[in-house]
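Late entry, written up from scratch paper. The run itself happened at the end of the previous shift, but nothing got recorded in the book at the time, so transcribing now.
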Amino acid sequence: MKNEAIMKKYIVNGEVFDSQDGSVFKSISKSPIYEVVRVVDKAALFLDSHLDRMFKSADLIGYDIGFLKEKIESYVAECININDIGSNNIKLVAVEDDNNKKLFLIYSIQSFYPSKSYYEQGVKTIVFEHTRDNPNAKIQHTDFKERVKEAMDSNDAFEALLVDSEGFILEGSRSNMFYVLNNQLYTAPSDLVLLGITREHILSLSGKLGYRVVEQKLHKDDLKNIDGLFISGTSTGVLPVSTIGDLQIPTMKNKIILDLIDGYDKLIHKTFS
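Output as recorded:
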């Protein structure tokens, strides 16, 4: 497993390691269960929800993480404290090393937060053919990650929208997806996608703003008919999409999406006010 740790230290089962020491990572060849958590003002955003999803992912594949949530929360606090993390993402990893020892790693990772212009102009995306084997379980697959990154880089795209074998677009490679059609907000059915933590809060926020969300699949042939589309994730919040391949999407004119962009930004600031 690649050493992604930045800043000074990382945590393994409560023990502190220098980030330059990659020995633990070298001992891991299995695909881990993981979560990426955003730290804002030295606090982990929606940590309880992330841990709930992490334990659900483990249950789906029959894996025992081996650590209580309360203990993991203390490890997270220690990682934030020893690295003095004000604003950055941290990664939580549950896995067994090559000697079948249970490990729980916490470390800061390279993080990118879109600038204001991304939310004002929208981002470019592409479509990428891929079907997740177990969509509700967040498991790291390095080969897929590398292939989709290469496709995005070659097309100068911010994200790839995944198209399944039947031609339906359900989510992004690292995000959930929402779209608007005939003044109605839609997202993919819950049993077919990774249930993002940001997605969960957008569903709640939509209701508070008076927008009902319908769970319905979007076929790639219907992209030309939609009135707007956005992706959501830990680092991006509600990020509007202006282009899918060569297709221009009128997202930046859609009131529902503009309201959600503003509403989610206010939610984040309220959480830490």
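The chain has a mean pLDDT of 94.
(Scratch paper discarded after transcription.)
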